[in-house]
Amino acid sequence: MLKELIQQDYPYGFVTDIETDTLPPGLDENVIQYISSKKKEPSWLLDWRIKAYRYWLTYSGEPTWSTVKYPKINYQDIIYYSAPKQKTKFESLDEIDPKILDTYKKLGIPLTEQKKMLNVAVDAIFDSVSVATTFKHRLEKAGVIFCSFSDAVQNYPDLIRQYLGSVVPVNDNFFTALNSAVFSDGSFCFIPKGVRCPMELSSYFRINSAKTGQFERTLIVAEENSYLSYLEGCTAPMRDENQLHAAVVELVAFENAEIKYSTIQNWYPGDKNGIGGIYNFVTKRGICRGRNSKISWTQVETGSSVTWKYPSVILQGDNSTGEFYSIALTNNYQQADTGTKMIHIGKNTNSTIVSKGISAGNSTNSYRGLVRIQNAAENSRNYSQCDSLLFGSSCQANTFPYMDVHNQNTCIEHEATTSKISDDQIFYCRQRGISSEDAINIIVNGFCKDIFRKLPMEFAIEAQKLLEVNLEGAVG
Amino acid sequence: MLYINNLYVKIHGNLILNGINLKIKPGEIHAIMGPNGSGKSTLSNVLTGNPNYEIVSGDIIFEGRNLALQNPEERALGGIFLAFQYPTEIPGVSNAYFLKAMLNAKRKFCGFPELDAIDFFKIVKEKMSILKIEESFLQRNVNEGFSGGEKKKNEALQLLLLEPKLIILDETDSGLDIDSFKIVSTAIDNLKNTFRSFIIVTHYQRLLNCILPNFVHILQNGYIVKTGPRDLAAELEKTGYENSN
């Protein structure tokens, strides 16, 4: 099929470079070979992809245990390879839909950044290349590797080979198998022994920062005694023509290492009636391999029409710590099924889960979490807190905490609350001169403040604004 | 200042106020008394614009403006304050944060710059010392886990911070111990002047002994059955509402 395609004449008489680099929809082993060869990958990686693909074929379908509902996805309708597209260039912001600009303004995104995101020609004053180069230089000096996944495959093949799939095996689930077979690009980050990464790494500043792909792959390795704070995503509304997103993120922390991974996810959630929107099926997992290591996930999820995501930690090293702090906001017809897994293997391991779900409109918001204490996880502790805040009576909040304890010498605590923003609360604020929208923001910020504290300062302010924008009009 | 003309009000389809007439001049103190269910709280709610209450007919004019055309926050910013009978709890929101938002909404409306945290604490602490409220009060969540007395003290503090023009006290004296009662009446004493008006909804003589109303109105079945000087309150306490018609 692929051969035919390559050999056939283009019916319209000419072919641009961009279009010859795009495959027709559909997936088979030829497509995977094509992707791998386009990326000039070593043969072991092609084999790895093919193996994943064959696993994927053995699945009867997507996992069905979550609460999310969506129309059937036809995997043969998806385009699995497309070279970076030349986006339409705009000369000035006047050419952009005022609605988008309005949202950016509310989020307080600087003009130059707005232009960059919308692909508008940037003023000469703002030289993004030199900014990137400065950062790159600082990182190199510290010995930190931070690059696109494709570059890492070329430049650090041994590291990739050693760690790729070591936390999330290809056959972990339907979506990881698919991602492993066809992933396009992503980020790689390596912090060597004893290095404290001199800055917060953000995928936004990544050199060659290509737009996040549909099947993204992130791998972060923190060696002994190292520290990293990593930021993923941004608050600006992200639109994407690909409806299905299935990313995989793997984190490895060695002895005394700490990885703090913060996410703001704001993909297109669909319109007021639930039409359109991204399906976000993500597998994120970290392993605390060494003693005293620590992995901390913080997420603010406001986007996507369907979110299916459980950033987890395997606590293998003794005295290691896993944390999960989450705010998930759903409005209109959004569905979120998100939570975490804390797998305690080592002794004296500690995990903390704080989940805040905010549901408005006709949305469904579920926390789903597993705390497993294995036989040997002597003297381990978990604390879980799951709070839900509801707007109106058409939305839904669920909590599914699973506990699986195989060691008697452990301590597990679980707290859960559900509250509804009441008309009385809103009226009370309004009687004090505070508008309903500000009243909602005050209440929501109060509800979420424990999580905001866990985010890097700038991210926290952005996240706060993001919640405000997403809840506009949520109450009459 | 406030002029209520032949006001009829419904809640959930039931007519509660049946033709209220009331005129309040600047600096006047009006007490409204009456049995349970006579419409006292409805009057407080409709004056402040609670969306659950529907004006069927009649007018409420405050400083020349038709209140029916204003939403609750506009009325509040215009100077109407209701000390709630049952102040709502707002879990997760600290009192300091709430009070600052409230005060800054008012300042913004009046064209003053918003207060930063330092200036805000200076002002709020001054008001708290008048009311003898301890500082930990600010760190607690709005009314969450407050005793009845503490909730009323919080209302009194807000009253002092906002310095409104028309103050409606909805059974503020109910369920107060002697100390809290003193604090609340201190706040009111602090605010009394020749242009500020009060509507005091109460069952008891106690508060009226401190505040000394100019008029006492008896509300029954949704309208004012009797209006008299302050002695009327004392009289009521002896004879009850039965004989007031």
Word description of this protein:
In chain A, 28% of the residues lie in helices and 29% in strands. Chain A is an alpha/beta fold and 476 residues long. In chain A, the strands form two sheets. In chain A, strands 1, 2, 4, 6, 7, 9, 11, 12, 14, 16 and 18 form an eleven-stranded mixed sheet that branches. Chain A is globular, with a radius of gyration of 23 Å. The N and C termini of chain A lie far apart (55 Å). Chain B has 245 residues and is of the alpha/beta class. Chain B is 36% helix and 29% strand. Chain B has helices at residues 40-48, 72-77, 95-109, 117-130, 148-162, 178-191, 205-211, 231-239; strands at residues 2-11, 14-24, 29-33, 53-62, 65-66, 80-83, 90-94, 141-142, 166-170, 197-201, 215-220, 223-228. In chain B, the strands form three sheets. A six-stranded mixed sheet of chain B has the order 6-9-10-3-11-12, sandwiched between helices. In chain B, strands 2-1-4-5 form a four-stranded antiparallel sheet. Chain B has a two-stranded antiparallel sheet with strand order 7-8. Chain B is globular. Chains A and B meet through helix 11 and helix 12 of A and helix 2, strand 7 and helix 3 of B.
